[in-house]
UniProtKB/TrEMBL annotation:
It is found in: Cytoplasm. The keyword Cytoplasm applies. Its main location: cytoplasm. GO terms for biological process: conversion of seryl-tRNAsec to selenocys-tRNAsec; selenocysteine incorporation. InterPro entries: PyrdxlP-dep_Trfase, PyrdxlP-dep_Trfase_major, SelA-like, SelA_trans. This is L-seryl-tRNA(Sec) selenium transferase. HAMAP family: SelA. Keywords: Cytoplasm, Protein biosynthesis, Pyridoxal phosphate, Selenium, Transferase. Its EC number is 2.9.1.1. Signal peptide: none annotated. Belongs to the SelA family. It comes from Desulfonema limicola. It comes from the Bacteria.
Length: 473
């Protein structure tokens, strides 16, 4: 590469790693920084500067390469190196159970219990009455049975694991009958037929996409039928000329032929959402009351707890599932159990639970509460001339593949800043610290105040003021 004289000069001015390293010895705030982080940060900074000299020399001056200004850049690099990759952000998308953004926020009681249990020894697998080895699920089995009405219960890593484990226990090498209308794919490549193939269960599809009748199931039953599976079509809806078999009818058929019936409820909720002017989502209690042998559902969707897969049902089948060696590979950890027990505890008060569990609170809160948050933001930004904010009546989504047709009326801020395109604004907010994630709708940057917590409004105000100030410079 041919370097001009200016570039050669600049390259010679680049400070040496050792010299900068020495300077940091006198920086009181940096004593705790590990040497490896310090050297890495210095090397990286100098490397970036060298690259700029070579590729974009106009952007670099002697001034950029003085020790003082390099030290400033190294400090920024150290900050980046020392911060965690997994970090909190502000969800302004209006999607309450947002799988990419961590699904459910835990209730305070669950957070407190995680920090209590995780720093100390516990009776995770120790029976304090008998003084010997105990069972991991015992902390949550009773309460799960009490809330759902089931005989027995356990929990694994997530609902995908729960489905896998149940199919493997009850249907490996046997036929599992599923309606063609329920061969669900959820995000992240979880497909019922593929999961089934992994367990060695043989998928027996019955009916058609839009209509499946009881006789379809009955005609498919053979000597090697191990299971009838019902899957809640959580993330889509088949409408029009449709027919499906109710869980109750399927349970009766299963009873007649001594074939267990399992249901994958997906979200799984203990709350009847129709009480809150929303579309009804089948509840776990209803499935248990219909006589299902096994139900599986997620811990972090509509339940509002930690990531977990919950299995409730008849003791006869749960006993078999608990003995499957796969449970060891799919087992739930102590932090999750701590959060789960605390979350389930909140369901003992069904009136209050929609306040104490953040996911339920965000889904059922009043429109005026959301408006109040939006207006607070609007007022704080009013004095800025270069920003225009409109409060709009738009809709939030439940997310997590739950209640796909449900549009929940919400209050959103549509934000425009002079000379910044909506996409550029979206990017600026996403790259802010903490990141603020909105959505683009009708070519406007939108923040939905349903999923924005009260304490976050100030953080958003600061972010916008910061952007506006930098524009003015
Ligand atoms: C979400 C979902 C799953 C997977 O649950 P995870 O907890 O995400 O593993 C399985 N089945 C259905 C029907 C679902 O909606």
């Amino acid at each position: 590469m041919n370097l001009d004289i200016k570039q050669q000069q600049l390259l010679r001015t680049l400070p040496r790693v050792d010299n900068i390293f020495e300077k940091f010895k006198n920086e009181p705030d940096y004593e705790e920084i590990p040497n490896s982080v310090l050297t890495d940060s210095i090397r990286k900074t100098i490397e970036i500067l060298r690259e700029s000299v070579l590729t974009n020399p106009g952007a670099v001056t002697e001034h950029t390469l003085t020790e003082t200004s390099v030290i400033q850049l190294v400090k920024k690099q150290i900050k980046a190196e020392m911060s965690y990759n997994l970090k909190p952000l502000i969800n302004g998308t209006g999607v309450v159970v947002h799988t990419n953004l961590g699904r459910s926020l835990l209730a305070q009681q669950a957070i407190d219990n995680i920090s209590c249990i995780s720093g100390l020894y516990s009776n995770l697998e120790f029976n304090l009455n008998l003084g010997k080895r105990g069972i991991r699920y015992s902390s949550i089995e009773d309460i799960l049975c009490k809330i759902s009405g089931a005989e027995a219960a356990m929990a694994v890593n997530n609902n995908a694991a729960a489905v896998l484990l149940c199919l493997d226990t009850l249907a490996a090498g046997k036929q599992a009958i599923v309606s063609r209308g329920e061969l669900v794919e959820i995000g992240g490549s979880f497909r019922i037929p593929d999961v089934m193939a992994k367990t060695g269960a043989i998928l027996k599809e019955v009916g058609t996409t839009n209509r499946t009748h009881l006789r379809d199931y009955e005609n498919a039953i053979e000597a090697d039928t191990g299971l009838m599976l019902k899957v809640h079509t959580s993330n889509y809806s088949i409408v029009g000329f449709t027919a499906s078999v109710s869980l109750k009818e399927l349970v009766e058929l299963g009873g007649k032929h001594k074939i267990p019936v399992m249901e994958d409820l997906g979200s799984g909720t203990f709350i009847d959402f129709s009480k809150y002017k929303m579309i009804k989502e089948p509840t776990v209690q209803e499935s248990v009351a219909a006589g299902v042998d096994i139900v599986t559902f997620s811990g972090d969707k509509l339940l509002g707890g930690p990531q977990a897969g919950l299995i409730v049902g008849k003791k006869e089948y749960l006993d078999k599932i608990k003995k499957n060696p796969l449970t060891r590979a799919l087992r739930i950890d102590k932090m999750t159990l701590a959060a789960l027990e605390a979350t389930l505890g909140l369901y003992r008060d069904p009136e209050k639970v929609v306040q104490t569990i953040p996911t339920l609170k965000m889904l059922t809160c009043s429109l005026s509460y959301i408006e109040q948050k939006a207006v607070q933001f609007f007022k704080s930004m009013q004095s800025h001339k270069k920003i225009s904010i409109k409060i709009l009546d738009l809709s939030s989504k439940v997310g997590g593949g739950s209640l796909p047709l449900q549009e929940i009326p919400s209050k959103c801020a549509a934000i425009e800043i002079e000379n910044i395109s909506p996409n550029a604004l979206e990017k600026l907010m996403r790259e802010h610290n903490p990141p603020i994630i909105g959505r683009i709708e009708n070519n406007c940057f939108i923040l939905d105040f349903r999923t924005i917590q009260e304490c976050e409004i100030l953080v958003i105000e600061i972010a916008f003021k910061d952007i506006l100030e930098r524009r003015e410079q």
